[in-house]
Specification:
This protein has 6 helices and 7 strands. The protein is α+β, with helices and mostly antiparallel strands and 196 residues long.
Length: 196
């Protein structure tokens, strides 16, 4: 069985996760379901807390391959939850998690003679990516630029756009996705948040 949640996290646990030749598992088949649920809860709880500043982990795949327990009787559901969460934290520590920031989809309208300045600003100082440039002029002679830009770079953009277009540019935007921060941004965010 698989589970995928809204954060695009995929958890995979094979049906034959717990060996059925254990006498306890044969005598109490419901225990198998209880253990699976506890492991699933532990994995999801760990992914909701993440390792970078406690933010949820997104765009990840977790595969629970097997469990090993010692003794004649399996442990408690809480112990399985804690063990699964600890395993996820150890796995995350071995990979390179990235800190994500919101990306805005901006639609910018400006006169054709100011397109170069607007494109330079989007691609340069705002670290954006132009997705499309509408070549057909509208009635007012304006061009339409669609770009994906970090939301943090769009603070104060209204004033900047007025300066770049002599007051004739307009834009609208909405948060569309999340993308990785640069190493410098990540280091600064971690320093500001953690104090070191």
């Amino acid at each position: 069985p698989h589970d995928r949640n809204a954060n695009n996290v995929f958890v995979e646990m094979p049906d034959e996760l717990v060996a059925v030749n254990n006498p306890t598992m044969v005598a109490f088949p419901w225990l198998h379901t209880s253990i699976r649920r506890s492991i699933w809860d532990g994995v999801h709880n760990a992914l909701l807390r993440g390792t970078l500043l406690g933010f949820a982990v997104v765009r990840a795949k977790v595969r629970v391959s097997d469990i090993v327990y010692y003794g004649h009787y399996p442990s408690t559901p809480a112990a399985y939850r804690a063990c699964a969460a600890q395993a996820v934290f150890q796995a995350l520590a071995q990979c390179s998690p990235q800190l994500l920031e919101p990306l805005a989809r901006a639609v910018i309208q400006c006169p054709a003679n100011h397109v170069g300045a607007v494109l330079s600003d989007i691609n340069g100082s705002r670290m954006g990516r132009v997705l499309s440039l509408d070549d057909s002029d509208d009635v007012r002679g304006a061009k339409s630029i669609v770009a994906q830009v970090p939301l943090s770079a769009m603070i104060g953009y209204s004033s900047a756009l007025r300066s770049l277009t002599a007051g004739s540019g307009t834009f609208s935007m909405h948060v569309e996705d999340y993308g990785p921060t640069t190493k410098q941004q990540r280091d600064q965010i971690l320093k500001d948040s953690l104090g070191y």
